[in-house]
Amino acid sequence: MSIKCLIIDDERLAREYLKNYISKIPQLELLGEFNSPLKAINLIKSGEVDLLFLDIQMPDITGVDFLRTLSQAPDVIFTTAYQEYALEGFNLNVTDYLLKPFSFERFLQAVNKVLDKADAGSRSDNVQFPNSPETSIAESYLTIRADRKLYKINFSDLHYIEGQKAYVTFHTVKGKITALASLKELEESLPDSQFLRIHKSYIVATREIVSLEGNILEVGHVKLPVGKMYKEKVLNVFNVKL
């Protein structure tokens, strides 16, 4: 499995650090590096790029604004010195957000999210269970197909669900499982009394909700963004009206 990637950063030293990190991971293939997003448009639109390491503050156009112009974007990992863009990264459904300067360990953690998703997709493509859908929902559990297996996940074991384009990651008490699934279909099928859509990328188990601060919801031990269109439903959990 090879993930073809690009570096877009206006700082030469930052590009050198990224190239060094990328060279340590055999699954990553660097197609090129650019000091401006505008110079990379044609290559990105060719469909050859699987992953962008994208800086945010650049002279011609910010990484955030550039990403908004792409109708079909590859996976994106933001690399920036500005922490205030983290929530914007969530809203744009980027894979991860690396705050400069970041260690190789933190870099690898971000890249592994992309590798895990690609691996889940390749495995599910090679497995066929006759008459078995990717995801099915019963009264108190759901069944998903991934990693050459059928998994049974009890609603009581499910913390939250994270959408990543064509894939969904189920975060459970036993770990996480990534599979082909539709977050919209899950939202429509899961019981409203137990699960709540809070963002275009997240569905959470309502029993796991701990607190709400601004647009950040604490769910168990993680903090997730709340999308504007979902804020009213989230407030209803706390018996608060807009």
Features:
242 residues; alpha/beta; Rossmann fold; OB fold (Dihydrolipoamide Acetyltransferase, E2P); 2 domains; 5-stranded parallel sheet; 5-stranded antiparallel sheet; globular
How would you describe this protein?
The chain is built from seven helices and 16 strands. It folds into two domains: 3-124, Response regulator (Rossmann fold); 135-237, LytTr DNA-binding domain (OB fold (Dihydrolipoamide Acetyltransferase, E2P)), CATH 2.40.50. It is an alpha/beta fold. Strand 6 and strand 7 (141-146) form a beta hairpin. The longest helix is centred in the middle third of the chain and has 22 residues, at 104-125. It has helices at residues 12-23, 41-45, 63-69, 86-91, 104-125, 183-189, 231-237, and strands at residues 3-8, 28-34, 51-54, 75-80, 96-99, 135-137, 141-146, 149-154, 158-164, 167-172, 175-180, 195-199, 202-205, 209-213, 216-219, 222-225. Residues 123-133 have low confidence and may be disordered. The strands form four sheets. The chain has a five-stranded parallel sheet with strand order 2-1-3-4-5.
Helix and strand content put the structural class at: alpha/beta
Question: What's the CATH architecture name of the largest domain?
Answer: 3-Layer(aba) Sandwich
CATH topology of the largest domain: Rossmann fold
The CATH H-level superfamily of the largest domain is Response regulator
Give a topology summary.
Elements: E1 3-8, H1 12-23, E2 28-34, H2 41-45, E3 51-54, H3 63-69, E4 75-80, H4 86-91, E5 96-99, H5 104-125, E6 135-137, E7 141-146, E8 149-154, E9 158-164, E10 167-172, E11 175-180, H6 183-189, E12 195-199, E13 202-205, E14 209-213, E15 216-219, E16 222-225, H7 231-237
Parallel strand pairs: 1-2, 1-3, 3-4, 4-5
Antiparallel strand pairs: 6-7, 7-8, 9-10, 9-13, 10-11, 12-13, 14-15, 15-16
